[in-house]
Amino acid sequence: MEWINVIVQGILLGGLYALFAAGLSLMFGVMRFINIAHGDFIVVAAYLLLVMVMTLGLPPVVGIGMVVILMSAVGYLGQRILLNRVLDEDILPPVLVTFGLSIIIQNSLLEAFSADSQRVPSGNFATASLTFNDELAIGVLPLAMFLAAVGVIGVLQFIFFRTALGRLLRATSDDPEIIPLMGANNSHVFAIATALASAVVAVAGTMLAMKTNFDPTIGPSRLLFAFEAVIIGGMGNIWGTLAGGIILGVAQTIGAQIDAGYQILAGHLAFLAVLIVRPMGLFAKAKG
Amino acid sequence: MKSLSQTAMDRQSKVQRLALIGVAIIGFVALASAPLWAGRADLRLLMEALSFLALAQMWNLLAGYTGLISVGQQAYVGLGGYFFFALAMFTAVPVLLAIPLAALAAGLVAIPTAWIAFRLQGAYFAIGTWVIAEVFRLIAAQFPALGGGSGISLPVALVRSIASSRSGIELVMYYMAFFIALTSILSVWVLLRSRWGLALTAIRDSEPAAASLGVNIRRVKFMVYVGTAVGTALTGAFIFLQKLRITPEAAFSVTEWSAFVIFIVVIGGLGTIEGPIIGVILFFLLRDLAADLGTWYLIGLGALAIAVMLIDRRGIWGAFKARGFPNLFVTQRTLN
Amino acid sequence: MTKLLETQDLTAHYGDFQALFGIDLSVEEGETIAIIGSNGAGKSTFLRAVTGMRPATGQNITYDGQQIAGMTADRIHHLGLAMVPEGRRLFSSLSVEENLKIGAAGKRTGPWNLDEVFKLFPALLERRRHGGTELSGGQQQMVAIGRALMSNPRLLLCDEISLGLAPKIIREIYAAVPLIRERGTSLVVIEQDIAQALRVANRVYCFQEGRVSLTGQPSELSRDAIAKAYFGTEDS
């Protein structure tokens, strides 16, 4: 019965990983752009919430809203001003630029906040839980986060498949060269995609801030989790990314149950297993 | 019949080339004779620089010619280091022999690793190699005999077995570094001048065209991946011999063995043999100048990498070459 | 009267290679212009320069009196120029209907909307939910044309719409041209199918190795003259 608890915790953790993954795969899907600083942006969001709640004294919900707005704006501007200049057939410039950004962000955070581990308190939420029977207890906060993650992914799915903007984003991922012939400005479309991805990253980062301890150096490992969730779930499929996140989360919690030191490794091994058996991912959409 | 200006340009090019060769010969002699004129601290610095040069040449071969952008070469630096420590500490293999053997062992691991990694393309391949490096790191941390998570130091007796005196040990180690760096440059150069080199250059210029000419792209990439893994592991084994201590975090550090190496190659000039040389010199100059600045040094480095990408992607040497500067290491056959 | 489109001495280079050597071409409102010429003559390059798909700064391209050389392609599109690109270039992730709708991203008003396009090409109506690239070549061409029409252009530029299609299908597609003209859109068609081009055009331009080798009304042009202009050799 203990294992049911483990799996449930894994599923809830998976929601967070799915959010990490959604932002990454959004940018890659639309722009073929892999952002090595993706995990570091998640950590930035966490620190922003920390500042809003601890320094400015705002309630967490307001703080989250502000972080989302702020990071979306920064994402839009950053794409238009900097990242659009390095978009290319060649993947090396984006790799190098975002690698540089990653190092700049980590070290700037270290300067500003020191290497101390931090966490954003969430008041009563943190300890409240729903008990189902003797072995199964679900924390209210983790459950709320999981539902929020599913909600965000649902919103993304809606945007992509039921709005004109989403149509434009999907078309841009198919054939960016023709997009100006449709009267759309590529710079703007790419920047919107980044703004959306940044909003998702902001939600993910603020959730991270309330869920676990964080410090300036955990960005890269979040990137790897995001990446693994994308690969496991399959590329080109937003709900598949949710599945990928959940599978990764469950693999990790099972690994942790066997031995605390095996948590991350178990996730990596699950990723490798999927890569060996089904490199396109478990729920990949075949492109026409 | 060449025009007057063409002849003048040729002459200028010849003069430039001679000057380059002159500089290279001076540099080579200086490095070859370093133990004669350099102090202990300088020798250590040179060994470190030579190690980075070898790593940079390997990454340049991988990324600049096969287009395999890897952010996971630290996997082989770490593997080289750990295999070396394991061989040196737990087998009867002499310390110096353990280094190349460790490299070969890492090469064997690279074979199935390549098969797995090649299931990903482009940017996903890049991050996939990073994940693989992390797997190696976590596995390495599982072995108590090698220090587990906190690492282990090389037993003094093993170090002493290299040579009879302290200066003797340093002499041997210096020439190991020198030899490894020299081998990396020469092997890349010889490879590029060979038939294989033509295939690599073809792949770099246009994969579809190369494939239609009968180049077995997958096989070439595979062999280059495994070959550079061996070269990287060889350097890694030496690096940790020099450090005398290995920890999973240091062995598999993405910042040290990927970020810095990539910066060196790209700032110096990707796809050229001279580029990494310039990159290493610049990198160590900067490090020396900014030594006290800690995090600000790293921030500056990141900013520099971004600036180079925005200003001129070909890097310093690439920019020179575009202005007609001749090659030091000639790898192309020109049609006259 | 201002010409709808006019280029004067248009040149184009791909690196060191010169593709166009001073093209003078004009389109009056209401006209259908055909551009013929063998592969590599520069026809597509010309269209790409006009639509802003390739750099044209410093050139002389006027649309309705306004200088458009150097403008971005999306701005030119908003002015009322739409292109049906070579090879159709439908969006594979989008359905037929979505491909059409995305053509209307601009805010121009006019006779064309989703219903009108389906009336023009009824074969598309029953396939509206299919993936854009699941259709036959001819149907994809219809979608591509419809997509361009959705922006209610004043000038429609078509790059080789008959490429790879059976003659019957080509005729079917060209049967739509009169209706498009009737509703106020002028046309420039690049055509490999010379007979079709002559049938549908008010005036013809023949490109040969980057230059206009012949121009005139179809009735004025003899077969020999066209062959010579097309291939650049004397027809014996």
Q: What does this molecule look like?
A:
The complex is a heterotrimer of chains A (288), B (336) and C (236). Chain A is 70% helix and 2% strand. Chain A is built from ten helices and two strands; from the N terminus they run ααααββαααααα. A two-stranded antiparallel ribbon of chain A has the order 1-2. Chain B is built from 16 helices and two strands. The mean pLDDT of chain B is 89. Chain C is an alpha/beta fold. Chain C has a single domain (5-231), classed as P-loop containing nucleotide triphosphate hydrolases (Rossmann fold, 3-Layer(aba) Sandwich). Chain C is 31% helix and 25% strand. Chain C has a six-stranded mixed sheet with strand order 6-7-8-3-9-10, sandwiched between helices. In chain C, helix 3 runs parallel beside helix 5.
Spans of chain C with pLDDT under 50 lasting ≥5 residues? Answer: none
CATH class of chain C: Alpha Beta
Strand numbers in spatial order across the main sheet of chain A: 1-2
Q: Biggest β-sheet of chain C: count, sense, barrel?
A: 6 strands, mixed
Rg estimate of chain A, integer Å: 19 Å
Q: Cα-atom Rg of chain C, whole angstroms?
A: 17 Å
- For the record, give the distance between the C-alpha atoms at the N and C termini of chain A, rounded to a whole number: 45 Å
In which order are the strands of the major sheet of chain C placed? 6-7-8-3-9-10
Largest β sheet strand count, sense and barrel closure of chain A = 2 strands, antiparallel
Strand content of chain A: under 5%
Low-confidence stretches of chain A: none
The helicity of chain A comes to over 70%
- Choose one word for the global shape of chain A: globular
Q: Estimate the strand proportion of chain C.
A: 15-25%
Number of strands of chain C: 10
Structural class of chain A: mainly alpha
How many H/I helices of chain A? 10
> What is the assigned CATH homologous superfamily of chain C?
P-loop containing nucleotide triphosphate hydrolases
Largest interface, per-chain counts?
Answer: A-B, 43 and 42 residues
Question: What are its keywords?
Answer:
heterotrimer, A: 288 residues, mainly alpha, two-stranded antiparallel sheet, 10 helices, 2 strands, 2% strand, C: 236 residues, alpha/beta, Rossmann fold, 6-stranded mixed sheet, 4-stranded antiparallel sheet, 9 helices, 31% helix, globular
